[in-house]
């Protein structure tokens, strides 16, 4: 083989394009090199030959369009609230600013069994329980969404193990057992997004909409909280942007942003906060945002692959000989996923003054979140829906 892995990666993308990775490549050494390079630089890559059947993807896209075309009053019957993170909403806050979008969140049932009735007590968990439209309102919607959800979960496990390989984590090792636990106890959720056109009045520079004080972005700059994200993008409207190789929370210069234009039949993958902590900072949880569009509507669907609620995510052991000495020491304190997720959800609903970040768990941080998570763990049962108002005092303390 004449080309080195790094040259192959460079050939797959330009300087202003995120990498493209072919999951069908039989050369595992090349694959893990490409994954490491992508996750440690951009934190994003496009995945082709991912194994999710094209007909299922097409059915899922149609199901999304069918749901968001329902009457507003019908969707409001599925509205999420302070004790249920799952359901419909059009009022989410990102970085304390309201997003310009409609969404439906569907998550792993607390029972782990999709055949159990959605509202059954056994399906209760920290994120609440699923709410679907009726079969008369949206025929076959639930069946298609569940099939797509399960395919994303299967692919997520495959990708997570590839990420581990790229970090030289041995299967069966203590570091690798996190992935074994995650496939059994993951608390992932699938989000269906609809971004309506946002028409700006050139004279007043204000958005014309019946929504009160909407922001100028579909989603403000943010990082995904979980381990990794599988994103199904819109083929026609390309509004997703990733910040270029930086770690600051606030970027105002448009030159710092690169638009992610999906290849046909591809999925867009990015690493999240938990993967960054687990990799001891070698993987990047990239800052990204979604622009509004004045004349196009946009649909997308991120699948957030998340650990179990009671899982403490800690930096893996950095003993490999080729690892730089500066990353052998742990850069982060252990982070309880259930706590991190609870605060992110609370911040989606209400302004807590600041959004929780991985920086709060750095070993040199003066934040008290590492201590507060232990306090909250004593008070909260992860088998029960998290009540934002009930624990507001703890969250704001």
From TrEMBL:
Sorted keywords for this record are: Iron, Metal-binding, Oxidoreductase
Extract the PROSITE patterns matched here.
Answer: FE2OG_OXY
Q: Which InterPro entries match?
A: DIOX_N, IPNS-like_FE2OG_OXY, IPNS-like_sf, Iron_ascorbate_oxido_reductase, Oxoglu/Fe-dep_dioxygenase_dom
Pfam families, alphabetized = 2OG-FeII_Oxy, DIOX_N
GO MF entries: metal ion binding; oxidoreductase activity
What domain of life does the native source organism fall in? Answer: Eukaryota
**Domain Fe2OG dioxygenase: residue ranges:** 185-307
Keyword flag Iron: yes
Protein family according to the UniProt entry = Belongs to the iron/ascorbate-dependent oxidoreductase family.
Q: What is this protein called?
A: Fe2OG dioxygenase domain-containing protein
User: What taxonomic classification does the UniProt entry list for its organism?
Assistant: Eukaryota, Sar, Stramenopiles, Ochrophyta, Bacillariophyta
């Amino acid at each position: 083989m004449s080309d080195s892995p790094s040259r192959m990666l460079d050939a797959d993308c330009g300087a202003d394009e995120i990498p493209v990775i072919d999951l069908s490549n039989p050369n595992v050494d090349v694959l893990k090199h490409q994954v490491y390079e992508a996750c440690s630089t951009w934190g994003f890559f496009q995945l082709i030959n991912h194994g999710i059947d094209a007909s299922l993807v097409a059915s899922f896209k149609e199901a999304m369009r069918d749901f968001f075309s329902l009457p507003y009053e019908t969707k409001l019957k599925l509205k999420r609230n302070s004790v249920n993170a799952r359901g419909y909403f059009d009022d989410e806050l990102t970085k304390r600013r309201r997003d310009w979008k409609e969404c439906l969140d569907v998550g792993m049932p607390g029972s782990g069994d999709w055949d159990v009735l959605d509202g059954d007590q056994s399906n209760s968990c920290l994120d609440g329980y699923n709410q679907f439209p009726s079969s008369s309102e949206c025929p076959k919607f639930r069946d298609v969404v569940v099939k797509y959800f399960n395919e994303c979960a299967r692919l997520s496990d495959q990708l997570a193990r590839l990420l581990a390989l790229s970090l030289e984590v041995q299967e069966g090792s203590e570091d690798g057992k996190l992935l074994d636990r995650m496939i059994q106890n993951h608390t992932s959720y699938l989000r269906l997004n609809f971004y309506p056109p946002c028409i700006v009045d050139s004279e007043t520079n204000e958005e014309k909409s019946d929504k009160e004080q909407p922001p100028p972005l579909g989603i403000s700059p943010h990082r995904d909280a979980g381990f990794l994200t599988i994103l199904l993008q819109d083929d026609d409207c390309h509004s997703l942007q990733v910040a270029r190789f930086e770690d600051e929370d606030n970027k105002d210069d448009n030159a710092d942003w690169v638009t992610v234009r999906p290849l046909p039949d591809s999925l867009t993958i990015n690493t999240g906060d938990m993967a960054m902590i687990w990799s001891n900072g070698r993987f990047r949880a990239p800052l990204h945002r979604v622009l509004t569009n004045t004349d196009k509507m946009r649909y997308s669907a991120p699948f957030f692959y998340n650990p179990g609620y009671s899982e403490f995510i800690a930096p893996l052991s950095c003993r490999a000989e080729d690892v730089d000495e500066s990353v052998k020491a742990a850069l982060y304190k252990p982070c309880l996923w259930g706590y991190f997720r609870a605060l992110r959800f609370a911040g989606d609903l209400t302004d807590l003054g600041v959004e929780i970040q991985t920086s709060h768990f750095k070993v040199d941080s003066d934040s008290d979140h590492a201590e507060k998570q232990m306090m909250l763990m004593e008070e909260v049962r992860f088998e029960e829906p998290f009540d934002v108002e009930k624990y507001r005092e703890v969250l704001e303390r």
